[in-house]
Design a protein that fits this description.
Layout: E1 8-12, H1 44-54, E2 58-62, H2 73-81, E3 86-92, H3 99-102, H4 105-108, E4 112-117, H5 126-142, E5 147-153, H6 157-170, E6 174-179, H7 190-193, E7 195-198, E8 201-204, H8 209-217, H9 221-228, E9 237-238, E10 244-247, E11 252-254, E12 265-268, E13 281-282, H10 291-294, H11 314-319, H12 332-343
Helix pairs in contact: 8-12
The structure holds iron/sulfur cluster (SF4) (2 copies).
């Protein structure tokens, strides 16, 4: 039964946590020190009962690992599909053939959304993997599944970007470029980690003018302020814990994908007495991960939070850019000018 309440945004880590299974090995991954293991508990009924107890319309998000190759994936897809007021957005590296997923009830009923991440440095053979990536994208497009492509903005991956963008734009795939902020991996990847502390704020410091220009021209004001200029979210009212929750394979529930540690726990979803927060929380951290946070923390400068999440993938919801042909980039002209500079 659909309600007028906001959809509950659930990061659903059914097969582990940030560190668990993936079939790729990107030099930069939010799952630091990955184990690449599967932790699926094999009990889909237990999950289903836990989510039913919340009595909410749910917008599931599978991310931080490769869902399509994870143990328990199709059981979870079927479970979500059984509930007409539940939807699923998958952040995937898009290396797996989606044919079976496209036959699911979720896909058939327009309740499946995809963010396909292209990681040229995470695959064994870039050319073969890119062909496979494109083939899978076209399958989703043909099936009319709302989709965007995501690309992480770090060197040397940035330099490979223009040629991929050309193909994606020609085929009407909306591209989202994501900056990477890290505070732990200085020794592994110093070039992208360097942030300058300036007047009490951290700044992304490594981009050239063109790299920075393209990144900024591609996104919206709220993401620019919090995701790129890294304005602090500390103490700001946020619906994390109330309208958003992250659940790990063992049922541990935390505020969000940034507030993920022991101190950010709000209980265990398998506990029959588990309750979401009734009120907004004050963000306990300085840097919000970006896109998902833009749908949940309040800043009156950008108007009210969306009442519902709707039928699209959440990156498109943040930037308010539904699917279109050609892709409707707000600053397309500026973007393409920066892109030409990136080619030099
Ligand atoms: S595809 Fe995603 S989860 Fe897998 S290694 Fe790369 S960044 Fe990490
Ligand atoms: S503002 Fe961002 S980091 Fe802070 S609690 Fe909300 S979603 Fe999490």
């Amino acid at each position: 039964m659909a309600t007028t309440e906001r959809q509950l945004f659930v990061f659903f880590q059914f097969n582990g946590d940030n560190k668990s299974f993936c079939n790729q090995h990107c030099p930069i991954c939010y799952g630091h020190d990955k184990t690449f293991l599967h932790y699926w508990n094999g009990d889909v009924d237990k999950w289903e009962k836990a989510f039913e107890r919340l009595n909410r319309d749910i917008y599931f998000v599978m991310s931080y690992g490769e869902a399509l190759g994870s143990n328990g994936f199709y059981e979870c897809v079927e479970m979500i599909g059984r509930h007409p007021n539940w939807t699923l957005c998958i952040i995937t590296n898009n290396s797996y053939n989606p044919d079976k997923l496209l036959e699911s009830r979720l896909a058939q009923e327009g309740r499946l959304f995809i963010t396909a991440c292209w990681h040229p440095l995470g695959v064994d053979n870039c050319e073969t993997a890119w062909e496979n990536f494109k083939e899978n994208l076209l399958k989703y497009q043909k099936a009319r599944v709302p989709l965007n492509v995501s690309y992480v903005w770090y060197k040397p991956q940035i330099h490979l970007f223009p040629k991929y963008f050309d193909w994606l734009d020609k085929h009407n795939f909306r591209v989202v470029v994501r900056r990477y902020v890290d505070t732990h991996s200085a020794f592994k990847i110093p070039v992208i980690r360097r942030m300058k502390w300036f007047a009490g704020k951290s700044k992304l410091a490594d981009y050239t003018e063109a790299e920075r220009g393209f990144l900024y021209s591609l996104t919206c004001d709220k993401v620019r302020k919090y995701g790129l200029d890294l304005a602090s979210t500390l103490g700001k009212p946020c619906s994390a814990g109330k309208d958003m929750v992250l659940v790990k394979y063992d049922g541990t529930a935390t505020l969000c994908a940034c507030c993920y540690g022991r101190q950010d726990r709000i209980g265990n979803i398998f506990n029959p007495d588990f309750k979401l927060k009734e009120h907004l929380t004050k963000c306990p951290t300085n840097t919000c991960g970006g896109d998902f946070g833009m749908l949940h923390f309040e800043d009156s400068e950008f108007g009210a939070l969306p009442k519902r999440l709707g039928k699209d993938n959440f990156l498109m919801l943040v930037e308010d850019t539904p699917q279109s042909s050609p892709v409707k980039y707000e600053h397309r002209k500026e973007m393409l000018e920066w892109l030409e500079k990136l080619r030099c």
